[in-house]
Design a protein that fits this description.
five-stranded parallel sheet, alpha/beta, about 450 residues, Rossmann fold, binds iron/sulfur cluster
Length: about 450
């Protein structure tokens, strides 16, 4: 059977996107050609996520749909959900092979197993690949995998194992290559705040960032999700004093604003420890894009617990929130906790927090009108511009999606994807626009 075109789909976090890219490169180096859609592919590689039960269901839904709509497509299921539910996926008749984890070499072996070995030679699988991201203007730079914490709700840690950091030299070398084609690098991993703790020497995320800023010029650096209590003083100094190269955007998981719930979640921080660190960071920066994850309806979460979360959300300067109704993950300690919260209450509490997050974002965007911003162009329409659209859109340093007044920057011909534009934010909270006017 001929099988030389592969389509990839990633569920979940930025770390997974990075892992998919490495899988893609391993398959490419083995002679497989990437396909733009499942229509054009004879192999589909799904890199799954298990952060919620919805993520598992999404993967199963896509597998069934792909098999239904693309007869003969061979489906390889890899990633976190595959690691935890290997037997379940293996029993699905639609699935060709299951790879429990993210190892690119395993994906290549699964992809080529049972096929005409003459078509593809396995070359370089498992070797140290440098991830490249040809599409998109941001590139993910994965610095570690796994996590040493024991949050009682978390299946990701079970799927990925303990924290393993990449050597700083390897990270810097990869960053140099990526910086040739990308104006922004996003430092990613499963628990980046523990970067370096397993390495010889006194490595930390802040030291790694300082080295990247020094040795990889001309690129801006963004941190992906990081625990607030693991942001050390050096990292705050870099956020405040790198001239915007370490961009003022933090995504700091809260999970709950109640100490009782945090204890049952086996989180290591208190409400006050989190609150104090976030306020300190915000006080050092003129502006800050600030996001958080919150789990709503954890077992035993009372109305008073929820009120504490709500009060904290109202106090802290969040610019967006990711709110997840709790769903039990098999194999986790929380799955056996009593006093589950009814779905209707979870839905109502989720709605309330999401609305607060939206209101915070709106207020923040309004406060930024008239301020300076640096934007990287991400979407750039081909051909004529749709009516009422400014054309290009992109992300600012503080994670705002903005449009560009094309005339201000030389018209459509003067712009391209990945361009870095500096200007003043105009428009209003509903629709921010970058203009060249100072
Ligand atoms: S810190 Fe907690 S939630 Fe985050 S990956 Fe580790 S165990 Fe999971």
């Amino acid at each position: 059977m001929t099988m030389n075109r592969a389509w990839f789909h990633t569920f979940g976090c930025k770390a997974n996107q990075y892992d998919t890219e490495r899988m893609r490169q391993s398959l490419e180096s083995s002679g497989v050609i990437p396909a733009a859609s499942p229509d054009a592919a004879d192999l589909a590689v799904l890199n799954t996520c298990t952060v919620t039960s919805e993520a598992d269901r999404d993967a199963c839904r896509l597998i069934r749909r792909l098999a239904r709509e693309h007869l003969g497509l061979r489906i390889v299921v890899a990633g976190c959900s595959a690691a935890l539910r290997e037997a379940e996926y293996a029993s699905m008749p639609e699935v060709w092979r299951v790879v429990p984890g993210q190892e690119p070499g395993d994906v290549v072996r699964a992809a080529i197993s049972g096929r005409d070995q003459g078509l593809v030679r396995l070359r370089g699988a498992g070797s140290s690949l440098l991830a490249r991201f040809r599409r998109g203007t941001r590139a993910w730079l994965k610095v570690q995998d796994g996590c040493d914490r024991r949050c009682s709700f978390c299946a990701t840690r079970i799927a990925r194992g303990g924290s393993r950091s990449r050597a700083p030299e390897e990270v810097v070398a990869e960053a140099r290559l990526l910086a040739r084609e990308h104006p922004e690098l996003v430092i990613t991993g499963i628990h980046i705040g523990h970067y370096g703790q397993d390495l010889p020497g006194r490595w930390s995320l802040s030291r790694l960032c300082a080295r990247l800023l020094e040795e990889v010029p001309g690129v801006r650096v963004r941190l992906s999700s990081i625990e607030a209590t693991e942001i050390d003083d050096l990292l705050i100094d870099l956020l405040a004093g790198s001239g915007g190269r370490l961009v003022p955007h933090l995504h700091v998981p809260l999970q709950s604003g109640s100490d009782d719930v945090l204890r049952r979640m086996r989180r290591w921080h208190t409400r006050e420890g989190y609150r104090a660190r976030v306020l300190e960071i915000a006080s050092r920066l003129p502006y800050l894009g600030l996001g958080a994850d919150i789990i709503v309806g954890f077992p035993g979460e009372s109305e008073a617990d929820h009120a504490e979360t709500r009060a904290l959300v109202e106090e802290l300067p969040y610019t967006y929130l990711h709110v997840f109704p709790y769903s039990a993950r098999s194999g986790t300690a929380a799955a056996s906790l009593p006093n589950t919260v009814p779905g209707t209450i979870k839905a109502a509490r989720s709605r309330e927090l999401r609305e607060l997050g939206l209101a915070g974002g709106r207020a923040y965007r309004a406060s930024r009108v008239g301020g300076r911003a640096e934007m990287v162009v991400e979407t750039f329409p081909e051909g004529s511009l749709p009516e009422g659209q400014e054309g290009a859109t992109g992300l600012t340093e503080d994670y705002l999606r903005v449009e560009v007044a094309l005339d201000d920057f030389g018209g459509p011909g003067g712009l391209q994807r990945g361009a870095v534009l500096r200007g003043t934010l105009g428009g209003d909270a509903d629709r921010l626009r970058l203009t060249a006017a100072s």
